[in-house]
Specification:
heterodimer; A: alpha/beta; two-stranded antiparallel sheet; 10 strands; elongated; B: mainly alpha
């Protein structure tokens, strides 16, 4: 009897020991993860000063997965001189217009769009003696922003030609209300008009705020921000509560990575829903809205005596899918256009900079091609 | 369903909880059902092919061995096949899932009546035909019966492969050949979707019937055990290609999940995800950029693109195998080792003992040896090597670059064989059993390894190229543009850079110590930190865009 109880006791002791020793590794894994988490937060701590625009790449990398609200809190200050420069960009009120020195009464060409469009304007300034460029842009602007900016700027530029830019990478975002709902890595708070098909015409939903001051007022007031959030949730196709809302997970660098993985997935799903192996789905809301936008843009520009031009920036790896999706609208209204795939192959990395812009040389070639397009449309 | 997807994590947690709660027999039934769900997640129509492949080979195995089918052995599979035909071909799963997405169940959309009718009638006719065939075989002398039954299995499995994987390739090649000699041919191209994993489960199922034919294995009379062997979800879509003698005994007996097995399984899962998510997905954008470009390419682009692809395909495929083996270990089932540090090989023979071991051993046992193997003159052996490797290349995909890749592998094996013959004639070498640390020819070994890595990489260039024109262009660049360091593509992602460094350190340690379980000899704290580091690098990789497993397309 005593032998048996001793056996049981020994065997249960050895089982406990085995389990205990087996649990040591997971325990050390957890300790290791906690240590690495803390180390990343210390070594790659993001600068607290919102005006720092170029922290190291790793500091930026480990910040990417922070919630949109978390990042906006860090970036936003009520004082324009203290806030992060990116929070001041892209507002409709007032529009950020870049004027270039006039070249002896040359006609003006106004380009509306994202940084690719602004760079095209700069290239036009470099390469053309025939036209004076003027750009109205916002970082990463989707075309609904650009079209909204055009509607607000109409007539103000007295332009000979107006150029509306489309870009394949952010084309799915044409149905959003703010860049902050889809620029997860570095959210930009500016807002855009949201267009939708209302019969044969485009209807418009205006954003809850259109200036930096209005944004600061909304963001700093929980009740107003909650109302704005509900508005975005209702009308913005990319709104996602888990990505937007700040919570305790923001404090962990590893959870930030997980949130970024989730955000990437959301973005990829949005893109895959629209962009199939056949190209951009022509029955999608985005393509329908874009085509209607081209139609109305062309009509309005012509009625104002300006030449409407569509600029299509095909990003690396996107082939000429966007051009193909928009081509029926371009043909239907005989809208002059410039698609980058005619200048640089969308699968040639040498035509692109690491940040997805075209190289200066490609921009110059695009600008020269734009001059030809405008001249041929005269 | 992809291993590296949130759906799979939820799926597996549910499966594992159920598995631990159920008794042995119910575990098998549950595993079979979830394996079908796992596969059907991609496209449930192709589950019918899995069911067809399973049923035929179950019957064939018993017919080869016993010359008859008992009523239970006939009725249950026939019922299974009929239900599979009706459900997988006649129902629309999208309509079935509608209520889950807030919609209503539309019976009209769910039940595709004409298809059900055709599937039902067709499968009954097929079962009647095959039964008649077996009745006829049962009256033959044993050797003839065994051979005829094996033929049924070969025709079915290779027929599935032929139709679903190779039809378009051969039809288009034939069309091109006819066009070249001036004969106009109408397009024979059919819109056939390649079923995921078809090359894996057909080969696995074939090995069962061939082993029975060779009297190396007794068939199982438990249909659902065999069905689970064919459809076992961890290795269904991309291997390893298991042998029945390795898996069926494990499925037919209760499993005892040990703590050691569980911890090794978890380690393998972490290692597999680390390889796949951190490294393979981290280098894939650069590889895609270089191999997809229509623009200017330099020598350094080709070199870096090819070396990175070597890393990508190794980490992608061995990562999948590691996760499959790890998951299986958690379930108490051991799968074979599929990779053993292939880039440490010093010659082609060594490489094929380390790379995709389950496929190379399958080709050796069921193709190379029956062709005559090593028995014969050097020319005869080389012929066998070339046939085996070209067909092995074709197994990877229905395209000429895979054929060329197989030919290249066969050629390297033949040249090596020739060199061995010459060397043995002049001075026979005794194999050394010394550990690497004690090897007096370490430098020579290292040079051979590096040199052979270059040979392997050129093979990967053939494998990855999307056309023969690209192979010609890249090969000529390697020769004529030598030393042009004008690099155009980007840098691999942070996860890939960190991951490759960590993996290299781990693999060198494993190789140096000649110990697969080297990590278990580390102090517990160090082991924990190593795994934590792998998890962090995987999380970094996860925060980028994921990609599908390369070997799914085979």
């Amino acid at each position: 009897m005593s032998q048996l109880s001793s056996f049981i006791s020994n065997s249960s002791t050895s089982s406990v020991r085995r389990i205990g020793s087996a649990l040591k590794v997971p325990l050390w894994v957890c300790i290791g993860l906690a240590v690495i988490d803390v180390l990343i937060n210390i070594v790659f701590a993001y600068p607290s000063d919102p005006r720092v625009t170029n922290p190291s790449r790793l500091r930026l990398y480990f910040e990417y997965g922070r919630s949109t609200e978390g990042q906006l809190s860090r970036m936003t200050r009520a004082d324009r001189t203290q806030t992060a420069p990116i929070t001041l960009s892209g507002w409709y009120d007032p529009l950020e217009v870049q004027e270039y020195p006039a070249k002896s009464q040359n006609p003006i060409v106004t380009i509306y769009g994202m940084s690719h469009a602004v760079r095209l304007g700069q290239a036009l300034g470099r390469t053309s003696e025939r036209f004076t460029p003027r750009t109205v842009g916002a970082p990463g602007a989707s075309t609904n922003w650009s079209y909204g900016a055009y509607l607000r700027d109409r007539g103000g530029g007295k332009s000979r030609a107006v150029v509306l830019a489309f870009m394949s990478q952010n084309f799915p975002m044409i149905t959003t209300l703010s860049a902050m709902t889809w620029t997860f890595d570095l959210p930009m708070p500016y807002t855009s008009d949201r267009f939708y098909l209302d019969g044969d015409h485009l209807g418009v939903i205006h954003p809850p705020y259109t200036s930096f001051e209005q944004y600061v007022a909304a963001f700093s007031d929980p009740a107003k921000w909650s109302t704005a959030r509900d508005y975005f949730a209702k009308y913005d196709s990319m709104f996602n509560n888990f990505i937007l809302r700040a919570n305790v997970l923001d404090r962990s660098s590893l959870f930030r990575l997980i949130r970024r993985a989730y955000a990437q997935r959301v973005l990829r799903n949005a893109r895959n829903t629209l962009l199939t192996s056949e190209g951009f789905r022509s029955d999608s809301e985005q393509v329908q809205v874009a085509r209607a936008m081209i139609h109305e843009f062309a009509q309005q520009a012509r009625s104002d005596g300006m030449i409407p031009v569509i600029f299509i920036a095909n990003n690396l790896g996107y082939s000429d899918n966007l051009f193909k999706a928009l081509d029926p609208a371009l043909q239907a209204d005989h809208v002059p256009y410039l698609s980058s795939h005619t200048i640089v192959s969308p699968d040639d990395p040498r035509g692109y900079l690491p940040d997805s812009h075209f190289t200066d040389e490609v921009d110059d070639r695009l600008a020269r091609a734009l001059v030809k397009v405008i001249e041929n449309s005269n | 369903m992809l291993f590296n997807s949130p759906e799979f994590i939820v799926f597996f947690l549910l499966v594992y909880a159920l598995y631990l709660a159920l008794p042995f027999r119910l575990q098998n039934y549950m595993l079979l059902v979830v394996s079908y769900v796992f596969y059907g997640w991609w496209d449930c129509r192709f589950l019918f092919l899995v069911a067809l492949s399973t049923t035929i080979d179950f019957w064939v195995g018993l017919m080869i061995e016993n010359g008859r089918l008992r009523p239970r052995e006939w009725i249950l599979p026939a019922l299974f096949l009929t239900i599979s035909a009706v459900v997988f071909l006649g129902l629309d799963p999208v309509a079935l899932l509608n209520p889950l997405h807030g919609g209503h169940l539309d019976l009209g959309a769910l039940v595709k009546v004409p298809l059900i009718g055709w599937a039902f009638a067709g499968i009954l006719a097929f079962i009647a035909l095959i039964s008649l065939l077996f009745w006829f075989f049962a009256r033959m002398a044993e050797p003839a019966r065994r051979t005829c039954c094996l033929m049924v299995s070969l025709v079915t499995q290779l027929g599935l492969l032929g139709v679903f994987k190779y039809f378009n390739f051969f039809a288009e090649s034939l069309g091109a050949a006819l066009d070249a000699i001036g004969i106009q041919s109408s397009s024979l191209h059919l819109n056939i979707v390649l079923p995921v994993g078809v090359s894996f489960y057909t080969f696995q199922s074939l090995s069962y019937t061939i082993d029975i034919y060779r009297r190396q294995f007794k068939p199982t009379d438990r249909f659902f055990d065999f069905a689970l062997f064919v459809a076992y979800f961890p290795q269904l879509q991309a291997g390893p290609i298991e042998r029945a003698r390795q898996i069926i005994p494990q499925l037919s007996n209760p499993r005892h999940i040990t703590l050691d097995q569980t911890s090794r399984g978890l380690y393998l899962i972490v290692l597999g995800f680390f390889k796949k998510v951190a490294i393979a997905d981290g280098v894939s954008p650069i590889v895609d950029q270089i191999f997809a470009t229509g623009g200017h390419v330099s020598w350094i682009d080709v070199v870096i693109g090819t070396v990175l692809f070597a890393m990508q395909i190794y980490c992608d495929f061995s990562g999948y195998t590691d996760v499959a083996r790890g998951i299986s270990k958690l379930l108490g089932i051991n799968l074979v080792v599929n990779f053993n540090q292939p880039y440490f090989a010093t010659n082609p023979q060594d490489f094929w003992r380390r790379w995709h071991i389950s496929l190379s051993s399958w080709l050796r046992d069921y193709l190379y040896v029956p062709l005559g193997g090593n028995r014969g003159s050097l020319a005869f052996v080389c012929r066998n090597l070339m046939i085996t490797m070209v067909l092995g290349g074709l197994w990877h995909g229905a395209a000429w670059n895979f054929v060329l890749w197989g030919f290249y592998q066969g050629l390297t094996l033949c040249i090596y064989r020739l060199w061995i013959e010459q060397r043995n004639r002049s001075s026979p070498v005794q194999p050394s059993s010394q550990s690497r640390a004690m090897d007096p020819h370490r430098l020579r070994h290292l040079i051979a390894m590096a040199g052979f890595f270059v040979v392997i990489c050129y093979g990967w260039l053939l494998f990855r190229a999307h056309s023969l024109a690209q192979i010609v262009k890249f090969t000529s660049l390697l020769v004529t543009d030598f030393g042009n360091f004008n690099y155009g593509a980007g840098t691999p992602r942070l996860s890939a850079l960190l991951g490759m460094t960590l993996l290299l350190a781990m693999e060198v340690t494993q190789y140096w110590k000649a110990d697969t379980h080297f990590y278990q000899r580390f102090p517990v704290a160090f082991r924990g930190l190593l795994i934590a580091a792998m998890i962090v690098v995987t999380l970094i990789g996860m925060s980028n865009e994921p990609a599908q497993f390369i070997y799914f397309q085979f």
